[in-house]
Design a protein that fits this description.
about 650 residues; five-stranded mixed beta sheet; 25 strands; alpha/beta; single chain
């Protein structure tokens, strides 16, 4: 009896162990949702975050979270509910293929009648049919010898490996690594999330090692922007881009900031094509319209387009005789010209997202538009009627990777992602050495403290382009005091960074006011002054580089009224504006020449061009111990 009890106890223990162990057994044979997502994101080479704090799912552990976040961000996977991802649930074969096909961002749908070839094709769920049809057509899903595809079968580890191996084997990739709107941010700034050129170089280098069919391109606003490049008129950027072996770039509006002659000198100094098809000097092409790159067995045309609004978004003095033709008309002409010369067309655009999207919907024959100018963030290339569009934010805070995907030589889709800075990012030593050389040369003069302040001065892009800020007020006050004018007006687009409280160095000022703009005194009528204010707020609440910052003026505008009729009241030094009176206005030479569309300044009389840089004017003001203004109601918005 005792032996019988002992045997029964052992049997019960074995049974309990058997009940508790199958999950471990299954985990070794079958793949869960979380495991497959991790494998897929790794296979795709997606740059994942080092830490994820804002994932809405309560059932995802910290180690898996970066992969799940990437899959959600790129539109590859969804949660089971708003708060759960179900990472430990087993995955069916059809679910795995849906994730994979979503990651390809295919150009076209594939016929579902292919399911008739398989006994169980009809068991594919409706929501998965398009994805599995595509997988069959692309050789990613292959039927069994018994003419089944087994969509509802649990995915095994070996099957997962096979699926992802087929992706690497069947799909050919041409990769673009693309920068835009770096604005001279060659040095890494961890606090701001700016990777700097040494980290960007390492990423590009690694991408080229992984896929020899990789091109490195830039989408403009590159040569100008921080003191480290401004003081050498862009030569630092030239040396870095040459060392990084860029393949091509398009100039942006701010690449004209040193003037057109200097831009041509920079073009000659770089060891890669600088292209733009819609810039004309005295009616003749200013730059080559495109370059054609042989990538593997394909000819890829890289076509450049520069924003037509460059005419009002760089100093007019630097673009005398230059015109910017319509982007769409230009691109259609170039597509026609390239027929028979190139297999695929990729546009390098510095025209802004709105224009890029219009081109992608209206111009047949274009495959991809890599963009800049509007500082937009597109996490994965976005598909439009004819082309895909991508853009990678600003200042090296993101770096784009866009992949053209081919199956048997045919372009089937475009996918990609953005890189961002985190602790694991490494630098290329050779590029870091070039950066350090320019940094050390510049730092000794830049680090001189010129003043100490006890408040943060707000120069954030989104703020100075939409509302009054204390930094905008300070700059306008400095301009007005320097020339002793009735009022001052400057544009928010000329303010490029905030200044933190504490010691203020030359570097702070020159980073905030990087343009070589000088202080100008003009005289103009009260009517034209009101027109200037109307012009400055016409796009509100949209961000606008022409948004006015003023001194000696208080005005109110109604955001619900049509552009041109928004300003409801204006005071000049406490008195109502007299539209018949002539006022003296301190502004910068960019605005005085009609920059940012301020055409009413063109008819004003320039009384005095000081030749003094705005940065110097602001340094002098800070050193004079004048009080720092607050946001004090110089600009009031009603009916927002």
């Amino acid at each position: 009896m005792h032996k019988m009890k002992k045997w029964m106890m052992l049997a019960c223990m074995f049974a309990v162990a058997f009940v508790l162990q199958p999950q471990a057994s299954e985990a070794s044979e079958y793949v869960t949702r979380g495991e497959f997502v991790q494998r897929l994101i790794t296979t795709l080479g997606v740059d994942i975050k080092s830490e994820v704090k804002d994932l809405p799912f309560t059932d995802v552990d910290p180690q898996l979270a970066p992969y799940v976040e990437a899959a959600i961000r790129l539109g590859i996977a969804n949660g089971k509910t708003e708060t759960t991802f179900a990472p430990n649930e087993k995955l069916t074969r059809e679910q795995a293929y849906v994730f994979l096909i979503r990651s390809l961002q295919l150009r076209h749908h594939y016929a579902t009648n292919v399911f008739k070839l398989y006994k169980d094709g009809a068991t594919t769920k409706p929501w998965a049919q398009q994805s599995l049809a595509a997988a069959l057509h692309l050789g990613l899903l292959q039927g069994y010898s018994d003419k089944t595809i087994r969509p509802q079968q649990w995915l095994t580890v070996e099957q997962a490996k096979t699926i992802l191996k087929r992706y690497n084997t069947n799909i050919e990739k041409i990769t673009f690594i693309h920068t835009n709107d770096t604005h001279g941010r060659i040095i890494a700034n961890e606090k701001n999330g700016e990777m700097g050129f040494a980290k960007i170089a390492k990423i590009a280098q690694d991408a080229r090692k992984k896929n020899k069919q990789t091109l490195l391109v830039d989408l403009g606003d590159t040569f100008h922007g921080t003191t480290y490049v401004n003081l050498n008129s862009g030569q630092a950027v030239v040396d870095l881009m040459n060392a990084m072996k860029y393949d091509a770039m398009v100039p942006g509006n701010h690449d004209f900031n040193y003037g057109q002659n200097r831009l041509l000198e920079l073009k000659q100094a770089v060891q890669f094509p600088v292209v733009s098809g819609n810039i004309y000097k005295d009616g003749k092409p200013f730059l080559p319209a495109y370059t054609i790159k042989q990538v593997g067995n394909k000819k890829i045309a890289l076509v450049g387009l520069t924003a037509t609004d460059t005419a009002v978004k760089t100093n007019p003095a630097g673009i005398v005789g230059i015109t910017f033709a319509d982007e769409e008309a230009t691109l259609k002409q170039l597509v026609s010209e390239l027929k028979g010369k190139a297999d695929h067309i990729v546009v390098l655009s510095h025209s802004g997202l709105q224009t890029d999207e219009k081109l992608a919907n209206n111009v047949s024959g274009v495959d991809v538009i890599l963009g800049g100018h509007s500082h937009d963030t597109i996490e994965a290339p976005k598909k439009f009627k004819y082309a895909y569009v991508s853009q990678a934010f600003e200042y090296g805070k993101a770096l784009g990777q866009t992949n053209l995907l081919f199956y048997k030589g045919k372009l089937i889709g475009v996918n990609g992602f953005l890189y961002r800075d985190h602790a694991t990012k490494q630098e290329d030593a050779a590029i870091r050495s070039i950066v350090d050389t320019y940094k050390n040369t510049t730092d000794s003069t830049l680090q001189q403290v010129i003043a100490t302040i006890d408040v943060n001065l707000d120069g954030e892009r989104a703020n100075v382009r939409t509302k009054e800020t204390n930094l905008g007020n300070l700059i306008a006050d400095a301009m007005r005091q320097a020339l002793q004018t009735d009022v001052a007006l400057t544009n928010g687009g000329g303010i490029r960074a905030s200044i933190p409280k504490g010691d203020v160095t030359r570097n702070h000022i020159l980073t905030t006011l990087p343009f070589a703009n000088t202080l100008v005194k003009v005289s103009m009528s009260g009517a034209d002054l009101k027109k200037a204010l109307e012009h400055g707020v016409r796009l509100y609440p949209e961000q606008n580089g022409g948004f006015p910052h003023v001194s000696g003026i208080r005005f109110t505008f109604d955001a619900t009224k049509p552009a041109g009729s928004r300003v409801t009241s204006v005071e000049v030094n406490g008195q109502p504006l007299d539209e018949t009176k002539t006022y003296t206005v301190a502004t910068n030479d960019f605005i005085a020449k009609g920059g940012d569309g301020y055409d009413m300044f063109k008819s004003s009389t320039i009384e005095f061009d000081s030749g003094e840089l705005l940065s110097t004017v602001v340094m002098n003001y800070l050193q004079s111990d004048k009080p720092i203004p607050t946001v004090e109601g110089r600009i009031t918005v009603v009916n927002q």
